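To whoever is covering the structure queue this week,

Two jobs came back overnight. Logging them here so there's a record in the thread.

Job A:
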Amino acid sequence: MARLSPEDRATKQRVPLLTSVVRRLRTRRAPVLPHEGPIGAEPKLGGRSGALRAAIFGANDGLVSNLSLIMGVAGAGVSNKLLILAGVAGLLAGAFSMAAGEYISVRVQREVFERLIHLEAHEIGSDAELERKELTELYERKGISPDLAARLSEELMRDPKLALETHAREELGLDPEGGLGSPWAAAGSSFTTFSVGAIVPLVPFWFASGSPAVIGSALLSLAALFGVGGGMSYLTGRNLVVSGLRMMLIGAAAAAITYGVGSLLNVGTGL
């Protein structure tokens, strides 16, 4: 402990809190037990950099937020030119905000995880025997017999790298080899998919105006939302129609509310 920096000592005091948060974030809501029978299509898993999650959120947010913005402005009775300006501004503001938010959140998460792994490495190097006993106790709590738990922990502790990986997974709930996340990948995918999603509601207004453009924007956006929701079923293994309808109905509700608010305001600038 004496060789730790003041910052590391402060972090070490918060390790139980930090690890409990990590485990809570990574734990399923309902336990899954071994069972027989069909499971349907096997879910397709993406990378662990955070880019897949950011891409899905980005596409959904781009569609819903810009559709809602455009419907709200359209409901207020403004001109086509002002509506397109608002849509482009919403696209740029949202894309940069999403990218910045994803970068910061994944960067901070990665720094916390790296600090926890650094402290674990220090503990293994400083008192390997104590860490071996902790690993034995962890396995015993999982239901492994004391003798086998002791042999497993002793064998794993022979290799410092394997010992660190095992402690990170079993004690901290982390994957030091690939589960820390890439902030740049998350930011880039979020920016790209948000931009693509936010363009969809704007397209009809480049070719038409008034009610036809509003109806076209709504229909095109709802179809895109259904497609994104249905595409998520490829990853989750859920029913395609149910996933698509769920996302489409959420987007429709948001757009209808903002259109109603815009209609109540009805500024009608004519710009």
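Job B:
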Amino acid sequence: MRLAAKRRGHWIGFGEYGEWDSQPVFLEGGLTEVVRLGHGEPIVLVPGLAGGWKLLAPLARHLAKRHEVILYGLRGEVTPLVMTREETISQYARDLGALIEHLRLERPTVFGVSFGGAIALELAVEQPQRLSNLIVMGVEAQFRASLGSTIALRVLERFPLPSENRFINQFFNILHGGKPEPGPLADFVIEQCWETDQGVMARRLRALESFDVSDRLWKVEVPTLVVAGTRDVIIPWERQRALAASLPSARFEALEGGGHIGFLTHKSEIERHVHHLIRERSRSFC
């Protein structure tokens, strides 16, 4: 199931296939890798629970046609996690705020997907001065534990899982919103998700259990875009639309046929919506 380097490079979308810059940065959560590509208004992409920044690389390539895109690894991706009594989404948001300050970015657009969407929302309510636009996908204002998430947490914490097990990897179909066509995209998603240590995944799920910004959404002062796949079975699109309705200045866009990883299957649509949001805000300051 391992992707050949050439095919893997095609999905990542840069490296030997385009110009980019990588640098190590030390944050509270440890050493992280920061990747920058493109030119224009900056967009910081916040990765999800598993897969790291490389899972967002195909989207980054599309966004970099008109913008500078900054990708980074969450705490635990490069160096072992700094063990604390309880890890929280607030800690991840502080890392993001510190990264924006370290890179001297002047109020960039922040775009978070899934777990990264929770981080982006937390940053927007607690440090609104850090960003100019907020974009989230695959998230809602409060984490709702389900039977599936509870089982996943118990399994990740207690049982070492083989990354090459075909039966176990069938569970990644849920990210697509159904069984995907066999091919390099499906393989890329599975392989990249397993790049994240399962202990790290478990700690992130634990952090999500206490995530709730529902009573603080009024603090989000920036223009916001909520994007949802109509086949997202992890966070149904109706609940994401409700998040948009609860925000002071938000627009909702549905990706027809998109799943939880619609950022991979609907890249061009997302790029169009993102560019529209940033352009509209720029016009309002003219």
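Note for Job B: The radius of gyration is 18 Å.

Please reply-all if you pick these up so we don't duplicate work.
Q.
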